[in-house]
Amino acid sequence: MKLKWTTKKLTLVIIPDAAQPVVRFRISHLLAYIAAACFSMLLLILIIACALQSKLNGVHQQWKATLTNKNLTIEHLQNEIIQLSQQAEQMKADVEEIKKIEKDLKSISLLNSDSSSGKDIPTIGSIESDPALGSPGIGGGPIPASQEEIMKLGGQTLASFSELNTEIKELQTSFRATKQKAAMKQQQLRVTPTLWPTTTKVVTSTFGYRKDPFTYRPSFHSGIDFGAKENDPVFATADGKVVRTGTDRFHGNNIVIEHSKGLRTWYMHLNKILVQTGDLVEKGNTIGLVGSTGRSTGAHLHYEVLKNGESTNPKPYLNATRKDD
Fold first, then answer.
1. What start-end ranges are recorded for coiled-coil regions in this protein (predicted)?
2. Which of 140, 138, 141 is nearest to 127 (CA)?
3. Which of 17, 99, 190, 264 is least surrounded by Cβ atoms within 10 Å, i.e. has the fewest?
4. Is residue 192 in a domain?
5. Which residue, 189, 181, 179, is CA-closest to 284?
6. 10 Å Cβ neighbour count for 70?
7. What pLDDT score was predicted for residue 130?
8. Residue 66 maps to a domain
């Protein structure tokens, strides 16, 4: 069965003003369907276009937000690079300060014979503030930093941290060595008779030749006499072991302490002995009381330092008081 599109017509009537004639249009069904289809297509295209425009606007807004976030992130990272650069400078100052402290430790411990004649120069990067002034102010002109400058600063900061890491490792090794040497030096000082044996520093007779106080003839004095009061404490001048205690008509009550490297100290004319042979004593321990026993004209301490069995001048060893030790 065939449709006869040409036989069916549609009449469109246009009625203008009352004074004008009616206008009639006759179109076939096929043309009407085509027109309706075209209208539907245009409407669909318009709807799709509106939807695409809306979606495009949303994408555009999202892109703008992403771009803003990206710029903020870049700015934040740039500020972090600047902060890291400042921290690197502060770390450099700290490392220099640590080096100075190590140098001072070596000097104090007599580990470094080199002497520095130059003056200390303040290290750039160390900022001090007065708490009474509150938070310190900062300022300057608004000169923006370019991306290229920030990238260059970041590279320099990375290089600084790498260099600091190497220096810190070297400092750790150096400090361990310094600590070991300082410990050895401290132990050496503990067994070296550097302490004054009495609370007084009044010397009544020095080491060397003198006129004998009993015979008035020239004689050799093998120690130093300290004019202390009777029963004043007598101190061990170094760590050691008591190897002899006793009394005789020349030395009176006396104590001999053995230290290290062939050194011994001898304390004479004591009123009382407070240690026994075989005792281990520490530097600064009270080992006896000042007296005038034996060949003596009055209360005093005769103090000797013997090196490999020979009496030597004690004066070079008297470097520390009890407070300094």
1. 60-104
2. 138
3. 17
4. no
5. 189
6. 10
7. 53
8. yes
pLDDT at 21 (0 to 100):
75
Please state, in angstroms and rounded to a whole number, the distance separating the CA atoms of residues 95 and 99. 6
Quote the number of domains for the chain: 2
- Supply the range of the domain harboring residue 53: 9-76
For residue 307, count other CB atoms closer than 10 A to its CB.
12
Distance CA 95, CA 97 (A): 5
Instruction: Please check whether residue 283 lies inside any domain of the structure.
Output: yes
Pairing, β 286-290 against β 218-221: unpaired
φ, ψ of residue 200 to 5 degrees: the values are -95, 155
| Cα–Cα distance for residue pair 201/225, rounded to 1 Å | 10
Q: DSSP string of 159-221?
A: HHHHHHHHHHHHHHHHHHHHHHHHHHHHHHHHTS--B-SSS---EEE-SEEEE-TTT-SEEEE
Is the predicted pLDDT of residue 118 greater than 50, yes or no? no
End position of a domain, from candidates 76, 94, 116: 76
Question: Is the residue at 274 inside a domain?
Answer: yes
Q: Which residue has the higher pLDDT, 167 or 220?
A: 220
* Lowest-confidence segment of 1-5, 47-51, 111-115, 246-250 by average pLDDT: 111-115
